[in-house]
User: What shape does this take?
Amino acid sequence: MQNSSDAQVISLTNTKIYVLDTNILLHEPLAFMSFKENDVVVPMTVLEELDYIKDSKKDVARDARMSIRAMEDLLHEASPEQMVAGISMVGLTTGESAPTGHLSIFADLSLNEEQQVFTSNENDNRIINAALHLQASMAPRQVVLVTKDINMRLKAKGAGMAHVEDYRTDQLISDVKYLSRGYHEFEGNFWDQANCLESHTEGRDTLHRIHKSILPDAYINEFLIDESQQFAGLVEDIHEDTVDVLDLGYERLMSRRAWGVSPKNIGQAMALHSLLDPHIDLVILSGPAGSGKTLLALAAALEMVVEKNMYDKIIVTRSTPEIAESIGFLPGTEEEKMAPWLAAITDSLEVLHKHDENTKGSMNYIMEKANIQFKSVNFMRGRSIQNAIVILDESQNLTASQLKTIITRCGEGTKLICGGNLAQIDSNYLNAVTSGLTYIVEKFKNFSGSAALSLDGVVRSRLAQFAEEKL
Assistant: This one.
């Protein structure tokens, strides 16, 4: 019969020790609570980096402060010996009786040269040394270094770290190919496969009720098209065994216009429909460079603000890695500081008004008429934006936490348009799978107030199309 001490040893062996890099706590300030029954170790070097970042002017300073406060709340009554041994995190994120691990601080600065693989004093090297020391001293327990820095993962592996991982707690899909496209294309003719149980007309709209078996994974606001280019529909409602589909009509969908812009393919037509729908509060557009994301978003925004008076203003912002450090040192107003990074918007405005005799005068008039404001992502926190259209460009470079901050700024009557290209991520710690853009596409998939479209095809020019396909 197994005694209690044997059971405790087996339990400890089955759990892991996770050593966290600084970028994990900047990506998700409360990440140390996400490892269930496993123990979490934060090296002293990580605390030093958080301390330096919390007082900086970088956008992540707030995340650093949040993480420090959360750890202090847990450890403030612990003695130095207890902090090294570990403090139980029971009840922080799970029920009081649920199994949970411990949080401890590791004094990696005290390692002597014999205990170090890397002798240089770089922060990354000190964190890897700490993980390697724990791997050797805590065997047979598995020690895992968690970092979003790809190069650091390679260095750690090369130095002998057996287990190195990215932080995947907020990762909803394993591969970007599984990301929702926003539409489902049927082979052949839709009506050859769909058994319409009933149809009824509401005003000018026709709704078809079809059996759910032909579309078992349907979600609200998912577009339906077919290869015959005869049918186009939109999932309006989902029941236990049936799906209600709004008949949009392929030709009618392709004939939609906004501010003089007509869709060049069915993907753009579906995107334009969602952009112009007043019942959709969040539109997410992804696709390659030149697929028309920014142009469609701006054309729809101008149509709804200037022509239809549905909103009061257009706020344009984007994520730029350098902006957190450099925008404050540039001369001029916030709009003037943002101008270099929002050239894509002004380029799109020029395209929309290229037939006007006085293009510059027309653009200035429209910018005043539509009340177009260029804002920095850094200054979005704390705001409550009412009755506006917010265009967030290059959103693939934002984390899920950063996107949440922006989305929660949107007040009553505000529509948010997020655009991005998952093949052009500039962030050091994000990829197509861990990008905040990917996260919100999946998270908002079943929200009736959102629509996400993946645009295919480059329509900017034949040169851009060839480069996208061949290079």
Notes: Residues 176-247 form one domain.
